[in-house]
Amino acid sequence: MVTSPDARGRFGAFGGRYVPETLVPALDELRDEFERAWADRDFRAEFERLSREYVGRPTPVTEARRLSEDTGLHVSIKREDLCHTGAHKINNALGQALLARRMGKRRIIAETGAGQHGVATATVCALFGLRCVVYMGVEDCERQKINVFRMKLLGAEVVPVESGTKTLKDALNEAMRDWVTNVGDTHYIIGTAAGPHPYPYMVRELQSVIGIEARSQYLERYGRLPDACVACVGGGSNAIGFFHAFVPDSGVRLVGIEAGGDGIETGRHAAPLTAGSPGVLHGSYSYLMQDEFGQVLGTHSVSAGLDYPGVGAEHSFLKDSGRAEYTSVTDAEALDAFRWVAQCEGLIPAFESAHALAALRKGLFEPGEHVLVNLSGRGDKDMETASRILHL
Amino acid sequence: MSRIASTFAALRARNERALVLYVTAGDPELAELPAIVDALVEGGADLIEIGLPFSDPIADGPTIQAGTQRALDRGVTPTSVLRTVGSLRSAVPLVLMGYYNPVLRFGHDAFAKSVADAGFDATIVTDLTAEEADDWLRASRANGLDNVLLAAPTSTDARLDEVCRRATGFVYAVSRTGVTGAGQEAPIEVQFLVRRLKARTQTPVCVGFGVSTPEHVRMVCEVADGAVVGSWLVRALAESWYGGAGRADLVRRIRDLKDATRG
Fold it and tell me: Residue B119 belongs to a domain with what CATH number?
């Protein structure tokens, strides 16, 4: 099983670099510098120290007894919701900010959908005294007002993006444009495992701590591995970080859950692996949602963080190789799970993570099977939207 | 010799540089494209780049991005663009400028054939770097199309070698580390980039991204074989194509740009 990209930055057929020439030298520099840093014991020690002392790692695995009773499965949850800033996003933001500092870049840009990556980036920029500009679609700014405020409070500049569909993909376009213009002093912290090489690989490495911890915690607690690992997939950073350590364990099913929106059959969804086809978006060859002419389609999901028409290249590779499987749950199923998990376990998941939890009720697993779900973030940011949708 | 190569040879014989103009297909309406091409040629365009609107134009600045969005909102597709271009006769070479995903979606061979059949002389695929370009280069060469590749001030010498080895027609030198957009100063770094390219290739070098006035054109033409004007024209067309004096005024302003290419 391929777990590292080849010289052209590809996982099998997927990945690569499809960017304006201006960015290629910056991507070369980033690739080389990340390789050096990742092999540097001092860099790793600093990353691990901050992960421990600042982010709060390791995050626990929690046995979910009442979900288990309800589903007839044996359910455990990896608690990335307990990370500082409320989601796994900070693992990547912290690593890349350390890298930017090492590269002497004092200005950081980021795109954000749900705002979790923007908040994580603004947070580490505050920690290291770096300038921070976050691009966010105007529709997402509306959906995730509290995170906009948090970013501003942390000293970041939030730039609302009016172009295109006004969501995550357009925020990414604007961030790319900024990077093309300011590549000399600026590092672009992409928040997900998509984008041109080396991002899918680098983000995977920085997030792989999720699966490394979860695998050893599970073994220690239960003396065995789970039958299945489940995670939500938008761009796919929490899922790839979670899956990575389990890829060699051929007995462990890897299940990615995409955003089914109003239902795959309606076309109003954000599920490129389930219902898309391979193409080039944001610098990478991977599955995406596109029309017959190769125009990228608008997406729909109640979850801003999953509302993205593309997906990380390594997921496309894992899908086509058969090592991982991908399916979707609808907005309605995710919202049901949101409430269900809150009331059964006292855990309020982010809308994104609620998709992964909803998969427990989709008949994907045999009774009694051990299922480990990655709870990638907590739902505080979604309270306002939830209170409008769920009339309690 | 390709039509583009002949164009540059004829310009050289007259001691002129090339005025390359960019227009987004479908902005204004696609039905206007033949008349727009006529006006650009009348003003003195030596080559015309026709932009194929793509949903996610990561390399374009706000002006061209907005034009792209207007074109997409009007329902412009690659098929309708190729059909319209196929119906017009241009006295100057035409270059299709776009992004890679529509090419990939059509298939390299089918797309190259359709583009050549429509009467294009070359393509520029903005997000296709030299190392990913070879399949497309093979298909387009087989259909008689030139391939314009981009070179940037940030490109290393090794990368410029790769670009120059593959580019035909002309090399498109990005004039500043940045995205397209009118109203900026024509930069100095262009001189160094052009010199580096000229040391590597006989293929003509044109400079674009940020070139918007006769002064910019003159500066660029002191060192390069041509200047590409994009955002300025996209804005001018959006603002005045339908106005009373629109066409005549546009032709006059293009003539000023063309005059700046004469040595």
Answer: 3.20.20.70
Q: Which domain holds residue B98?
A: 3-149+212-259
Helix (H, G, I), strand (E, B) or coil at A36: helix
Q: Which residue of B73, B105, B172, B174 to mutate against A (max A Cβ within 10 Å)? A: B105
- Residues 6 or more apart whose CB falls under 8 angstroms from that of A322 comprise none
How many Å apart are CA A284 and CA A292, to the nearest integer?
19
The residue behind tokens 């299940």 is A255
Q: What is the domain count for chain B?
A: 1
A29, A151, A154, B152 from A130: Cα distances, Å: 20, 14, 11, 27
What was the pLDDT predicted at B189? 81
Classify residue A364 as left (phi > 0), alpha (psi -120 to 50) or beta.
alpha
Q: What is the CA radius of gyration of chain A?
A: 19
Contact by Cβ (8 Å): A306, A237: no
- pTM, whole model, 2 decimals? 0.95
| pLDDT tens digits for range A258-290 | 999 999 999 999 999 999 999 999 999 999 999
Chain-centre distance of CA B111, in angstroms?
Answer: 18
Q: Is A261 helix (H, G, I), strand (E, B) or coil?
A: strand
- Interface A-B, measured as beta-carbon pairs within 8 A, has a size of 118
Inside any domain, residue B175: no
